[in-house]
Amino acid sequence: MQTEIKTITIKIGGEAGFGIKVAGATLGKVFSRLGYDVFDYTEYPSLIRGGHNTFEITIGEKVSHHVRPVNLLVALNQQTFNDHLRELSDDAGVIFDPVKVTPNSKNLRQFGVPFTQITKEVGGSDLMKNTVALGAVLAVLGGNVEGLLDLIRSTFAKKSESIIGSNINAARGGYDFIKNNYKEPFAYQISLKPARDHLYLTGNEAVGLGAIAAGCGLYVAYPMTPSSSLLEFMVKAGSKSSVVVRQPEDEISALNLAIGGGFAGVRAMVGTSGGGFSLMVEALGLAGITETPVVIFEGQRPGPATGLPTWSEQGDLRFLLHAAQGEFPRMIIAPGDVEECFYHTAEAFNFAEKYQMPVFILSDKNLAEGGRTVSTFDQKKIKIERGEIATDEQIASAGKYLRYKITDSGISSRAFPGTIGGEHDANSDEHDEAGYSTEDAHMRTQQMDKRLRKLDAALKEVPEPVLYGPANASLTLVSWGSTKGPILQAIEEMKGMSVNFLHFIYVWPFPTPKTKEILLKAKKLMVVENNATGQFDSLIKEKVGRVPEVRCLKYDGRPFWPHEIIKEVRQVLENK
Amino acid sequence: MQTEIKTITIKIGGEAGFGIKVAGATLGKVFSRLGYDVFDYTEYPSLIRGGHNTFEITIGEKVSHHVRPVNLLVALNQQTFNDHLRELSDDAGVIFDPVKVTPNSKNLRQFGVPFTQITKEVGGSDLMKNTVALGAVLAVLGGNVEGLLDLIRSTFAKKSESIIGSNINAARGGYDFIKNNYKEPFAYQISLKPARDHLYLTGNEAVGLGAIAAGCGLYVAYPMTPSSSLLEFMVKAGSKSSVVVRQPEDEISALNLAIGGGFAGVRAMVGTSGGGFSLMVEALGLAGITETPVVIFEGQRPGPATGLPTWSEQGDLRFLLHAAQGEFPRMIIAPGDVEECFYHTAEAFNFAEKYQMPVFILSDKNLAEGGRTVSTFDQKKIKIERGEIATDEQIASAGKYLRYKITDSGISSRAFPGTIGGEHDANSDEHDEAGYSTEDAHMRTQQMDKRLRKLDAALKEVPEPVLYGPANASLTLVSWGSTKGPILQAIEEMKGMSVNFLHFIYVWPFPTPKTKEILLKAKKLMVVENNATGQFDSLIKEKVGRVPEVRCLKYDGRPFWPHEIIKEVRQVLENK
Amino acid sequence: MPYHPELTNPLKVEDFNTGVFPTWCPGCGDFGIWAALKNALVKLNLPPHKVVLVFGIGCSGNFNNFVKAYVFHGLHGRALPVGAGVKLANHELDVIVIGGDGDGYAEGLNHFIQTIRSNVNLTYIVHDNHVYSLTTGQASPTSPTGFKSKTTPTGAFEYPFNPLAMAVSAGGSFIARGFAGDIPHLADLIVAGVRHKGFSFIDVMQPCPTFNPELSYDWYRKRIYKLETEGYAPDNRFKAWEKAQEPISEKIALGVFYQEERPTLEDYYSLPQRKPQAQRSLDKIDINPLFEPYK
Amino acid sequence: MPYHPELTNPLKVEDFNTGVFPTWCPGCGDFGIWAALKNALVKLNLPPHKVVLVFGIGCSGNFNNFVKAYVFHGLHGRALPVGAGVKLANHELDVIVIGGDGDGYAEGLNHFIQTIRSNVNLTYIVHDNHVYSLTTGQASPTSPTGFKSKTTPTGAFEYPFNPLAMAVSAGGSFIARGFAGDIPHLADLIVAGVRHKGFSFIDVMQPCPTFNPELSYDWYRKRIYKLETEGYAPDNRFKAWEKAQEPISEKIALGVFYQEERPTLEDYYSLPQRKPQAQRSLDKIDINPLFEPYK
Ligand SMILES: Cc1ncc(C[n+]2csc(CCOP(=O)(O)OP(=O)(O)O)c2C)c(N)n1
Ligand SMILES: Cc1ncc(C[n+]2csc(CCOP(=O)(O)OP(=O)(O)O)c2C)c(N)n1
Ligand code: SF4
Ligand code: SF4
Ligand SMILES: [Mg+2]
Ligand SMILES: [Mg+2]
Questions:
Q1: Ligand 4 atom closest to D137 (CA)
Q2: Atom of ligand 4 nearest to the CA of A17
Q3: Topology (CATH) of D13-294
Q4: What is the ipTM of this complex?
Q5: Which of B226, B449, D37, D115 is the Cys-Cys partner for B365 at CB 3.0 to 4.6 Å?
Q6: Which 3 state secondary structure label does DSSP give B460?
Q7: pLDDT in tens, A211-237
Q8: CB B310: neighbour CB atoms within 10 A?
Q9: Residue A472 included in any domain
Q10: Phi, psi (rounded to 5 degrees) for D75
Q11: Does the global pTM surpass 0.95?
């Protein structure tokens, strides 16, 4: 299954609550600074302690996704070894503390390192074993330890000298132990790369940066995995950027607060996961009928209900598409990677305000919490477009103002509270052009049509999906959102095979005429989704009128791994 | 447009808060007792007073729906006359009080009746004008007044003699005034019919009776039009039938209460409209993953949000189908008329328990609040099937019990609290067969598949849609839920034309193999829906793979009238 | 900024009328609240474009059509968070949130308690008619024990919800009771509430002759007395809670039960020191410093 | 009915263990509540099949895997209505609802207040660690003012939610406070709560060494005293409310603050006079009399 070595995957595993995540992210950053592409992936249970945590990073020249098999395993306990043995490549290595772990497999390159003893020697806490391990990893891979030491110094900058000192010693201890005891180089070795202007961050951090760049002034969220890290980011970054960040009593309150903010003229956003969004459904319709812009971040995790809180899925697409009583327009944007999280979150605010409708950023745990390297974001690429806003002067010169004026585009200008003469009724009842409640059959139909027309207008402006790979291919993979990573990675490894890949960031409205044509003309379609019922597949059937030939579905909480997709594609191409 | 006279439509209009509804329903009952088919329709605003109310009834030998034009208008105020003049047939009559209303149209047969004066003479309140009017209606239509007087006597049985007396005199006053002053018979005359064993009741009353017949033991609802009348019915009838009926603080609580009840072994039901259901979405998923049976009545009204609270729409189908994060099975039953409300509500409880999933009764304001005559329900037709339930003995002899056992059908037996050895964890987390939380990839996939398999099983048992009209036709109308009435009525009047009608009560799961075949083979499909986006139409596209040729959509809060459908059909057939 | 062309100067009550005349039943207490609100706005000299009114759903919510201002007619039970959102977006606006007892003490109770805790600077007026009216008469949390309604044919059973005691327990900074039948007094309470820095709450006794005829104007008048004429000082939480325990079936105190000044939610976000969020210029945002931790 | 084959007679604490050992952090107060609950069930001699435990979502909710009974693990904030539904379906079962402070006083606050009002006969235990733990440390309604967390880096601002005062104001019929570090005392409170006819509420001070380390066992122990040793009689709502005003940063009273007997929700539905709804035979229903009004 393995092709030529372009990537190295390292996995650290141990008991929950022992800083695995922090250690892994530190390692990722060291590699990122070394000029590597890094893509990380973490598995942890919905518990604070007592469960099993792992953190994996794949590094390479160009990495679109975390790949398996694992080439280097850091086993902080026996379970890590036992559970993940079958994920290892034939030439993999394992780093472990011989007093804790017995690696009962002969084929592996074994690196016993006395974590506990070294930790004790440097006077560190139990958690510091991780630092020892990181030093050891760098040594095994033939790197140098300086990058790690720098990072330790800056991370702990505010701590006491002795804390910094013992961490430095721990890292060096692990590093030196390998250097001194395992002279023969390990099969996987890193090399020096040119320095780059890169960032290493997660999807949620990129979403947050995009929101701030777009001028988000109010972020409201009730904690829920995998959106909590976005809330934390906004709390931290928001205070430096004049964003009011609020944790209210529940998700119902969250969306209603944001709608109040949007009505009053601020760019407002909420963040949640599917369960929290379930509670926002009624307010979604409120945004719909009052035509109030709002951006909704939804980080998917496997349902139904509580489901698998710390795992990933793409099970909420149809839910978001049809949520709330009645019919009204909305947009769904599903970024495929960290970079798209940034730019398209910023774009979401423009769409929300121009079309005066709720706009979703649909992410999932894999994308939200997975870190990777990206070229430093270019804020200049972000334009702020606030749509039609009526000013004092405009209203005065027009002599009147109608909030819900029937227009060809469906868009009528907004007047923010405070604007003279713009008083109106933003009414959840069906209303006339001024906003007053009406039950008139004709006006009702007109207002419905007006609102729905906005989606037609938006469709004309929506970016087309991107086609990766050759223009013509025997098989076209189709996906949306975070499945982009593993598919791109797979495509990379399938060069020469007659397969290409159409990726959708803009999932709704769908399809543009051009997209429809592409989908109709493709020789064979294989829809790849992290769900059980093929939700985007069903949209293609409904809206394109074509039945995709193959569905590749996975719904066990894990992402696709590139090798799984390659296997599937091979099967399809061979059976043809 | 008018074909041979088979029906008479009578409309009463006046100011909200003046008992129009009660008067109309009384008239309906008089005709029902006279052996007529009655179908009523009421329009009223979301206000207690000050708006305009109307009540219409269509009577005839066989009436499937209320029809227009109106043949006899009772105008209690000038607005009634002005607003509804254009709805009248050429030979229509109008009954009015000349001191209040000036019927400025020459073509109508005019029946001036001094309502106010007669009311004063009999010593009645202002509301009693309605009773005078009812007497007048019966006289104009050539009926006798005895049925009305009987009804007054029984309705007011508990009131004082003087109240009964003045009502009787009011009715007689109206009746006699017509008899004495308008000798020439009106164009529409009623005749004597044989007595029948019939009921005259609304969709909601039929739903309530169905639930009680099915052994519903817990009904929970927060008031919301058009489900409030079901709550009121259950409060009244429930106390006589051992149903615990509870109005909780909100809809979230409502569904969670019902789920608790279902878990503990009672047949539980909630009732709401789309807005309230929006708040139940999260708990829907809870029922899904814990596999707890529950019946959810949803009476649709036009959205989004508050929308048109007292009007009708079919805008929530897709919403219900996809509501809540993650993927899990549910059923949607959309009765087409009052009779189906009864029998299929009862059936809903069987499906819910056999397949351990939430089952919707999807109604709308037209069906929920529209009264009609039906053959008295036959309780013997209702079977109670509770699905697989583990007893003390079964568990003891099996030696163990697994609540979420993986089975071929997907169904695993339930054990109610109190059962010895049946202790388990009804867990909103993904779980193993015993119910304990698990994050294992394999078990997760197995439990997802198990749950989804239940829908395949249910599909095998779901009743097929009914085909009305000739087996082969140039045009097949397709609809679901309450649009059945106007279409059947239209079909009746289109005898001889090459058109038939496929009506769906069981909307989800969809389609059965046989249905799919019918839909694929039909020459031309016209989907008729009370919504703006064609939601069932989209399901046909997605699930049948055929694009229906014509969509007939209406979303102004009003039902289709048969003549509108006939017009549409004619157009399609002629253009062909 | 030009003065609003459609307004009289000084403001008159008519400046707040819309073309829509109230559809409430004759004798409905909502008319009194309508009048009191408009009078209060006149007294406060708040022109319609500077006022945001947020309504829930109910007969009380139908109010949305009858008063000129920036009006937001939200969802049943969810008006308060919308109001708080408006305030966070633009703290210079005066925000008044209006709903019913079903709206605020059943469906929306969580927001009521939590908004009190936040002390966001807005005014909340509840049309407390002790019944669900728009849905034609079901018991509400404030329905008196034994109240017969469509859903409680044998009489309401649950412990009656005590809005004032709840507000005191939750840390309310302005807690008052008014009466729809005493327009000047109610207008004064609204003025005081709007002027109060922090969350001001006014529970208004509102006769609903249609669905709660027993609690008529007379019924209320027989029980009503005014705190201010009693020498009651609204400066003590314990006394306020005790006062709030008087059963309304016996005595109904009107006026301010409790008032204190403490930091508002806007203070927490240092909003008063800045331009309103909604007026922030979005051209000059520089996110580059935020990249630092990811380099 | 045969006696449960898997149980010891008399019951032992072990009879309530499942195969799953708690995953809480070492030193977590939840262990104490776990022990106290099992001890209470033994004292009450309630075999697992007669007990229904309903859990919310949180570290507290993770409890669902660790105790043998009929367990329902519901949604965040929504355990109480599930529990009430169980009780209405089968009033012969003993129902205990367990959740966290975020669960019960934020997301689920409305149900808390309204379930108190209904006086449904079940027991509600809150793991009050004054923080959201499972989501790794955000401020909760009971977080002390100034509490620093991921979402309140400058310290919690809102008026701290006072569960006991709220319960008194809402008409609670059994209101108590326990401590996860005093297992026998807490077990006794649970026993008393379960025996109480009506809604019993126990707010448990629960140390969370991971996300709220300041409020350690020691911190609590320094402030704790017991009402019963003080001659406090839990029979007066006014006194109970006053007692509940003691700031926990100074003194923490443990024990029963208030108790009274009044009709339960089951009484309202006359359930105690009948067979449980869930055991009603569905074969003998006759709806024909209900047709009368429609003829
Ligand atoms: C989510 C939701 N549930 C239910 C309703 C139906 N509803 C409309 S008004 C109302 C209650 C009105 O009572 P109250 O708030 O006391 O207002 P009032 O009519 O008495 O002024 C209800 C339940 C709704 N609109 N939305
Ligand atoms: C609707 C919903 N919103 C948010 C969450 C995420 N969530 C899980 S536990 C929790 C809070 C836990 O705090 P608490 O109730 O105090 O329990 P603890 O972990 O402290 O025991 C939250 C917000 C959820 N599961 N469901
Ligand atoms: S029903 Fe009651 S609250 Fe509603 S308008 Fe009429 S009197 Fe007022
Ligand atoms: S995080 Fe706190 S509450 Fe959760 S298990 Fe750990 S110590 Fe207990
Ligand atoms: Mg009310
Ligand atoms: Mg907590």
A1: 1
A2: 6
A3: Rossmann fold (3.40.50)
A4: 0.97
A5: B226
A6: helix
A7: 999 999 999 999 999 999 999 999 999
A8: 20
A9: yes
A10: -100, 165
A11: yes
